[in-house]
Amino acid sequence: MNTSIVGKQFELTDAIKSYVENAFDTLSKYQLDIISARCVLSADEKQGKKGFSVEFALNLARKNTIVIRQKDKDLYAAIDLTVERASKVLRREHDKMTTVKGKADDKAQRQQIGEEAVEGVDEIVPTELELYKPLEIEEALNELKNSDRQFYVFNDIDARMRVIYKRTDGKFGLY
Question: Signal sequence: where (predicted)?
Answer without folding.
Answer: none
